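USER: Fancy drafting a protein?

ASSISTANT:
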Amino acid sequence: MADFGPGGPGNPGGLGGQNPSAVNVPNGLTLFRLALVPVFVLLLISGGTASRIAACVVFGVASVTDLLDGELARRHGLITDFGKIADPIADKALTGSALISLSALSELSWWVTVVIGVREIGVTALRFWVIRHGVIPASRGGKIKTVLQMVGIGLYILPVAIGPVRVGVMSAAVVVTLATGADYVARAIQLRRSVPAAVTGAGPGAAGGAGPERAGAGGAGAVGVTATGVGADAADGADEPAGGVGASSAGDPGAGP
């Protein structure tokens, strides 16, 4: 198996439990995806069959990196603060530029672009809102949303007359986008409420000064809460590609919620 950096499958925190370096393969893929955005837009708006096909290829390559960076980061313990921030930004830049360009070319209704754009920006804002409390892993619905958006946009980019098919896929993408957005809001609120409550509940027991036995019981309670929190987080993360990343990517996020 290739060595992707200081972390590894058996050492998710990096060597010696240290945080992994921000210079790694997953973050490199994220930056590569971000760099492809202007290339994609130029090809899309330049017109011509060849340019549209080239734009579709670039969009496909960028979409694949969205699926890869988060998976590599989780599998090899290379999740970094930079990746948590850069991955969702790169995702939204790619999707947003594609939707805005298609709407500007009068090939996609503006209301579709606005609905998806508001949802994606809102979810990104929620990520930053709860980032100090934990990371919300991408749900299966989020992965389906990402795939539907990628396929829908790809069908609109292709210079082929498949109107009913692409309209159907994009309509499904909008519905799933709204549903997963509502789910993400609910989970973000729950995380904000639950994490402080767990920390506060552990404090009094540990700090109780009624004697060694009380202090010991309090300490055990604190450890129990911590272990439970870690176990739940690990279980969520194991169910996780795209969407990432949750924190992909890199936190996707990918692909993600």
About this structure: The first helix runs from residue 25 to 46. The mean pLDDT is 74.
